[in-house]
Design goal:
Number of helices: 7
Number of domains: 1
CATH architecture: 3-Layer(aba) Sandwich
Helix content: 25-40%
Bound molecules: S-adenosylmethionine
CATH superfamily: Vaccinia Virus protein VP39
Order of helices and strands: HHEEHEEHEHHHEE
Strand content: 15-25%
Radius of gyration: 16 Å
Largest sheet: 7 strands, mixed
Strand order of the largest sheet: 3-2-1-4-5-7-6
Amino acid sequence: MRSSSTLELDEIKKIYAGYSNIYDFLFKRFFYPRQKHVISSLAIHPGEKILDVGVGTGLSLPVYPRFAQVVGIDISSKMLQEAAKKIQKYRLSHVSLFEMDASRLAFADDSFDYVIAAHVVTVVPDPVAVLAEIKRVTKREGRIIIINHFQSTNPVLAKVEEWITPLCKRMGWRSDLSLEDLVTRADLQVDHVFRLSKLDPWKVIFAANNK
Ligand SMILES: C[S@@+](CC[C@H](N)C(=O)[O-])C[C@H]1O[C@@H](n2cnc3c(N)ncnc32)[C@H](O)[C@@H]1O
């Protein structure tokens, strides 16, 4: 599902290396409340395994329960360095980090009970390939959770989001990814879609693993 809207891996690494030490200052106030709400709502049981895809600076990491086993992966070593600082700061011995491409996950099939991708599917070059990998490593009865902004279903706003895509690309994401299109192409079995508030630009998607 590559298009002219997508970024290439080298560009992504360069852009997010640039963001790494200002990312929390710029984005925490927008992203963290939703991550906290969603992760806190999960019925995670002791010993369950969770994969946080594109974990970035690890904003979400302090929210996961300490009785779970949490793995965070990211393509950017600089973003991971910031996540490693949070592991130290909050003594998160239940969390491990790996530098890894989300479209080629180095985990066995059916490894995780929950896989979460927050603000990632509009950053990766091929979101369908990433979702195929997410489905592969998630257990059959596991849950897939996506948090992201998607292209508006309002035709005027959608057009504006197409126009601003070149600008957004320079900032490290695309603004024209349609949720409906992604769900169809990735063959996702969506159970529930919601926003934290009526005008929230970000959506939360809960999916079953229909592989
Ligand atoms: C907008 S940030 C989101 C970070 C974090 N999930 C959050 O919500 O704050 C996007 C992250 O995706 C990572 N990323 C982009 N492409 C990736 C890929 N192919 N594999 C793994 N991580 C990737 C970037 O390095 C960056 O850390």
